[in-house]
GTP cyclohydrolase 1
Amino acid sequence: MTLPLRQPSVHLYAGNQTAEELLAEQELAEQQGAESTQESTLLALQQSYATLISGVGEDLTRPGLVDTPIRAAKALSFLTKGYAQTLEDVTNGAIFPSNNHEMVMVKGIEFFSMCEHHLLPFMGHTHVAYLPEGKVLGLSKMARIVDMYARRLQIQENLTQEIAQAVMDATGARGVAVVMDAQHMCMMMRGVQKQDSSTRSVAMIGQFTTDNQARNEFLRALPASRF
Ligand SMILES: Nc1nc2c(ncn2[C@@H]2O[C@H](COP(=O)(O)OP(=O)(O)OP(=O)(O)O)[C@@H](O)[C@H]2O)c(=O)[nH]1
Ligand SMILES: [Zn+2]
């Protein structure tokens, strides 16, 4: 059986275009495609927010609410922008060779996330440590990794684990440890309405699971929860 021939891409036969021009054209087409996907996502969110606002008995034509569906759609897009990011995007190749094998710790990285059960915020601080094995990660990238996973619908335990695994994947470290202290709006504004409780979650990978000295060094260095 003869397979139908695919239509050749016009780029291949575009005559006297340089490789750079072809690449730029392709990038532009991809960018336009991504932009139109973003626009249609925003439109869908906007319509959903209009339904929600009407659903609570409000008047969508009231001056204060006229622009609320699009504003809220943009806000939710921002708060979930982590879905569109990858580890490669956020680390941007900032991995450096190093002979220092001692623990590296970045403490007190604030984060804001959204609980996947109630779509309400939870927020707090993240503390990350790793035991390098020949290479280290740009320090700011730790915070970028935290934000990439926090800007998704999450539960705190999974968020903690995902951050630890990403730091491990990026650094090839001997071990990674992450602690997160957070307060959950779903426990404060509604439900049990407890204003003073906070949650600590821990994720340990590699040497931190067996080396009590490393584990204790990290845990002892942590500041008390600020809540
Ligand atoms: N383990 C975990 N639970 C969470 C997190 N965020 C919210 N929850 C909990 O998810 C649970 C959902 O419980 P359900 O009984 O299904 O929902 P609900 O009736 O709204 O629960 P209440 O909050 O107790 O009123 C609640 O106990 C929340 O406190 C999180 O990050 N980790
Ligand atoms: Zn919740």
Summary: The pocket of zinc ion (ligand 2) is lined by residues 115, 117-118, 120, 184, 186 (CB under 6 Å). Strands lie at 95-97, 104-115, 121-131, 135-137, 153-154, 175-184, 199-206. The radius of gyration is 23 Å.
